[in-house]
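Z., the sequence and structure:
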Amino acid sequence: MTPDTADSIAFQPAQRVRAIGVSEILRITDHANALKRAGRPVIVLGAGEPDFDTPQNVREAAVRAIERGDTRYTVLDGSPAMKAAVQLKFKRDNALDFALDEISVSAGAKQVIFNALMASLNPGDEVILPAPYWTSYADIVQICGGVPVSVACAEANGFRLDAAQLEAAITPRTRWLFVNSPSNPSGAAYSAAQLKPLCEVLLRHPQVWVLADDIYEHILYDGLAFATPVAVEPRLRERTLTINGVSKAYAMTGWRVGYGAGPRALIAAMAVVQSQTTSCPSSISQAAAIEALTGPQGIVAERCADFQARRDFVVAALNRAPGLHCRVPEGAFYTFASCAGVLGKRTRGGTLLQSDSDFCRYLLQDFEVAVVPGSVFGLAPYFRISYATSMSQLEEACQRIIAACDALE
């Protein structure tokens, strides 16, 4: 085989994925875990995964499903029992009524998002992403042929999008607005009063649909009431997809069950996409998710209280570190702290810190703490910490971060 022949048969990725890599969050986490396996005492604060176990009653429901032989394919986009559990959840928690054919169940909330965009976007359609945003949003939009439109949301406004920004971002090509509350990565949450002006803008632009990612709904602090767009403005119902899942509130990340509710035509189109990808979600995982959604809910509030204690500790610690500043997030299990005050300084090794990525690299290499730079989420110079880990780990990590800032020249 000649070199020319070898070049001609080399793999060429499709255009839709050439500019997209594996999630930067996963890449950072994998690198940090590799360092741990090599014997270094790295503390990984990158992954958005609760450290709690799946509740006992949920695990037992899965075992019962296996024992009675519920191990076959289910209905394409969720079993009737699973959809009924989702229906109950929306009515109980959000005062929203959805028919079973207005509900879709997939292998995680991420697949619900993918199905919706694959089913609705044409090449060049725009999707407004308030930044900072979960990094996968932009990549999924691009894979599905759309154009992500990032709108920077100032820390002074709580990292929330305001009505004027939304109005300015909408064009004739705008197809979707994403609203993630509480937010990954900032922990920012919208109250009903804060959502209302955004809804009023959307009412003036009937071509714009709303994707409400409510996956952190039950991780909300300080007595704040949860709000979701279609509950705030029912007139948006026929162009809103409300997404949720069991991964975060019920510590079921590996079970891979997410769900969405919206207009029948969209749900039907999403089913077409799912039919040609994963088919149905796991039957065992659906049995577990049914128990999570319909069983006792007390453990959710208990764990939320634990998360709030961790939040309070991490925010206070970061605000003691020279050059760092961290606002108090309203929900989720992340802090999104500014590192602007350390940029322009040098490490003891002489490295100049010019960006949030430089600072995060310094923390990992010199102080063995893995965090994610804000630039990954579309807004710099910040960094995200996931405090979904033990308090002892958080205490040690924060000590190292403070020491890292103290060591800068």
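The mean pLDDT is 95. The domain at 58-294 is CATH 3.40.640.10 (Aspartate Aminotransferase; domain 2).

Let me know what you think.
H.
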